[in-house]
Structure formats: C-alpha cells, structure tokens
Amino acid sequence: MSVTADGRRSAVRERVAAVREKYPDRLVVRPHVLVTRVVLDENQAAVGVEYLAHEHAYRADPAADGDPHLAPPHLVLARREVILAAGAFNTPQLLMLSGIGPRDELERHGIPVRVDRQGVGRNLQDRYEVGVVSEMAREFPIIRGCSFHAPEPGTPPDRCYRDWQRGKGLYTTNGAVVGITRKSRADLDAPDLFVLGLPADFRGYYPGYSQDGLLRKDRFTWAVLKAGTRNTGGRVRLRSADPRDTPQVNFHYFTEGTDKDGADLDAMVDAVEFVRGMNRRAGNMIKKELWPGDGVRTREQIRRWVQDEAWGHHASCTCPMGRPDDPASVVDNRFRVCGVQRLRVVDASVFPRIPGFFVATPIYMISEKASDVILAEAMPPNEPSTVEPSARRIR
After folding, report:
1. Contact 333, 147 (CB under 8 A)
2. pLDDT at residue 71, rounded to an integer
3. pLDDT score for 384
4. In CATH, what is the architecture of 31-124+316-378?
5. CATH number corresponding to 128-309
6. For the chain, what are the domain ranges?
7. Which tens digit of pLDDT belongs to each residue from 207-220?
8. CB neighbour class for 382 (10 Å; exposed up to 12, middle 13-18, buried from 19)
9. What single string gives the DSSP state of each residue in 27-63?
10. Using one digit for the tens of pLDDT, what is the confidence trace for 150-161?
C-alpha cells in the first residue's frame, strides 16, 4: 500500500481496477469463481484451468455453501500459458490438486502423479510478531475525535475525515507514529528486528481487531517483528482431493521447526525487553503495561508468552525458486514450474527465503521482473520489444 500525492491510499486493488478500466478486452476479472486445478496435456504442458462458478464455494469462507454437490467445473483454455498467483497456501494446493507435487502426498489422496516435485508445499516461512500494549496517562490528541469510519448518511464527518478529504491528516497514513530497526545480535550483517509504535491496542489479528484496538484513545502498542527467520520447517499439505477444502497449514513454529537453537525466540525476547526499557524511560507518560502485563517478567516467562501469543501474516516460500535439478525447487529463475511447460508461479511462494521486514514490496518487485520475462519470451525472435517499462504502468 502506498499513498498518492493527494492523500489517497493506493495498492494492488486500485492497480487492477485501473488496468481493467483501460483495457477491458485484455484484462477480465471474474469474481465468485474457484479454480480447482491446472489442466495438463499429454506433453506435461498447461493448457488451461478448471473452475467452479459458484459464490462461497471455498470452505475458507465463513459463508461457504454447504451443498456437497455443485455444478460441474468450467474449463478455460490458455492461448500462451497459465500463471498461478494464488499465494503461499493456495498455489501449492492448486499444484498438488493438478498432480504436481510430492508423490507420497498425491498418492495419499488418490491424485494421479503428473510431476513428482518434492518441494511443493514445503519450506513455508513467516515472521514472528507480538504487541506490547500500555495504558497511557492521557489520550493521544492525534486520534481524539477520530471514528475511523466513513460518516453515516445524514451525519457530519469527523475531523479526521474532513482532513482526509483535503488530502492530509491521520487517515492518509498507515497509522504508525515511529519505526525502529535493530539487530538482535551484533554479528548480523543487517537488522532483523523492526519495532513499530502505534497509538492503539494491537495484540494480533482476529475478526474485529481493528475496531477493538481503537475503542480507547489512551492505548499505545510497540509491535515487534522478527525478520530473517531461521525456521524453514513449515508445510502446506492437502486436506483432501476436494478443491473446496482448505489445505492443512502448519508453520511448525519455534521448537517444532528447524530453528533448533532458538535464535528466533531469543531475538523476540530481547526485543520485548528492549521496548520495555523504552517504556521505563518514558516515566509518568505511561500509566501501566496491559499486555503482557506484570505477570510476565522473567526471560523464561517472556519466552513462554512469545511462544503462546506470537503471530505472523507474511506467509511465503512454499514453491521456492532454484535450480531445476534441485528437488527442493519448484520454479526456475524464469518463474516456470519445473517439469511442466507453459506454467508459471508469480507470488510470495517463489521466495527461497522470506525477504526483508515486509513482503509486499518484494512481491511487487518479482512481479515486475516476471512481466519483463514473460514479455521478452512472447516477442518473436530477433524482434526487440517496443514497450518501455514506464509505458506499462497505469497511472
């Protein structure tokens, strides 16, 4: 997400909408459909996809249709190739439903094996995050009078909304008031901890979290994020051969994963102690700590609390890029699925290791790279492209 010059938030949704409006005959967005598999021909080439045209077909949807027998899937054929961008959970699910993945996993669900690729669904990675929440001695003036809602019909807007209409103020930002990068160990080449200050009560993601976090105007959260995880032991597996079922997702956090010496956990404990040290120096501006609170003081207590409460929302790396002769790789350096023709993956699943602190910008970068690769391969031999990169961007 970025903010335009006039204070409007802009992200992938706006980009897709702009391209669809400008090129309606070239970009068709079809909502309420669920892709069920990639269709391969006898030469292991992707020729299209099958999909269900049914609202609420996927069982991850809280309003999922309970009917076990929906209409038969539709088939759409690809003129050139198929590109999967379903994310770290659903891209490996789609590949396995299509017969591309670990042989034992496919055979376990009775799926004919088209390509035995052991890396599909493995190497799942994410960040660790926790929030240290305090009650302040006074409300924050910056959010006083802000409802964080659009005005109801017939009611006047709050002051922050009026500011936003003029392209300024709190609603034009992501809400953070300060950010700190820090190394958990002096010998690291780059910082691996990011600490974000928020004038809100933020303890993780759950339905309704954004409204709960803003009920009080005297809350402050240090959100701690650990980058560069050593844990590559997560995995996405099939729950069944039914494409409407969600996959089984297990990050194998902490002691279950590959970070056996606990370096990630130690870094998180250090970061919690670091932000508590900043709070102590704030003196009487802070009334008390609410979360984790006085019951969590020793390093061992903090370790237990982090293990119980840490979350992440940057899942990635389940179809890693690498050498085609490496069985752990799923795509090559041109985003092509190894062992399959006319099929690419372009999403967060292709990273071998989770990059940076926030994964969105790296995803945009690989998307630009993939578009260059695809355009170059689509051009006739010896015919240079006349499309400049800047011309492909819709303003």
Report:
1. no
2. 86
3. 55
4. 3-Layer(bba) Sandwich (3.50)
5. 3.30.560.10
6. 1-28, 31-124+316-378, 128-309
7. 999 888 888 999 99
8. exposed
9. -----SEEEEEEEE-TTSBEEEEEEEE-TT-STTSTT
10. 899 999 999 999
H or E segment and range at residue 302: helix 299-309
Q: Which residues pair with 157 in a beta bridge?
A: none
Q: What is the pTM of this model?
A: 0.91
Collapsing DSSP states into helix, strand and coil, what is residue 374? helix
Supply the mean pLDDT for the chain: 92
pLDDT at 383: 59
**373 CB-near residues (< 8 Å, 6+ apart):** 334, 335
Establish whether domains 31-124+316-378 and 128-309 are of one fold.
Answer: no
pLDDT lower than 70: segments of the chain: 1, 381-395
Report whether 102 contacts 319 (CB < 8 A). Answer: no
Of 310, 305, 297, 332, the residue nearest 257 (C-alpha): 310
**Cis amide leading into 73 (omega within 30):** no
